[in-house]
Amino acid sequence: MPSLTPRLLIFDLDGTLIDSRIDLCNSINATLLHFGKPQLPDPVIASYIGDGASMLVRRALGDPEGDIHDEEYVTEALTFFLSYYRIHKLDFTYVYPGVIDSLEAIRAAHPDTLMAVLTNKPVNPSRDICDHFGLTRFFFQNYGGNSFHTKKPDPHGLLTLIAEASTIAGDPITPAQTIMIGDSDVDILTARNCGATSIGCTFGLAPHTLAAAQPNYLAHSPTDWPRILKT
């Protein structure tokens, strides 16, 4: 880790702070059943997670590249999925062991380091989940996949958080002083696209994507975060 203590930590949500796999898979299969489509194995659905709700639904419908031209059909499926997930998002979802202890350790060791969430999950369920599990107290902001006109790995959301953190801190925070923590290549590429450091979480939903993305550091458990940060 660079000798300069990071001034800003940005966390992904699904596969990084929480394990939401079962609720997302159940919600997709409920959507497929509703629209007369065959249900899919959980590992297949889990491999579709990471690029936002719309792409998750499109991939489950058999449209991996987002080329379905019947946008009304896709919109109906997405609407059903979001409505179902809104109700069932906390059925089986849990915070990974060690997350809260690690966030508390980081805050105790680096009280001036700001933390936020940047996820491709829609912002309202992201905030609701963080509220439910008592995670919101750690973060000055929580942005989702529909908070901006683009999603990760576009760096717009990360750059927005850097600007907001700079305002809170009272002086500029640079990408070089920022770390993005996530479980997939999407998060690693987001960091790289704006010049931030990355930590890849191998315990998440998409560890198979990390090798090609080459994060700066690997965390095999949330308890590795303080160690990597030299807390």
Automatic annotation (TrEMBL):
Pathway stated in the Swiss-Prot or TrEMBL entry: Organic acid metabolism; glycolate biosynthesis; glycolate from 2-phosphoglycolate: step 1/1
Sections of the chain in a coiled coil: none
Q: Which InterPro entries match?
A: HAD-like_hydrolase_sf, HAD-like_sf, HAD_2, HAD_sf, PGP-like_dom2
**SUPFAM superfamilies reported for this sequence:** HAD-like
Per its record, the protein catalyses: 2-phosphoglycolate + H2O = glycolate + phosphate
Which molecular function GO terms apply here? phosphoglycolate phosphatase activity
According to its UniProt record, the EC number is 3.1.3.18
Family, according to the entry, reads as follows: Belongs to the HAD-like hydrolase superfamily. CbbY/CbbZ/Gph/YieH family.
Q: What is this protein called?
A: phosphoglycolate phosphatase
Q: What's the source species for this entry?
A: Edaphobacter aggregans
Q: What is the lineage of its organism?
A: Bacteria, Pseudomonadati, Acidobacteriota, Terriglobia, Terriglobales
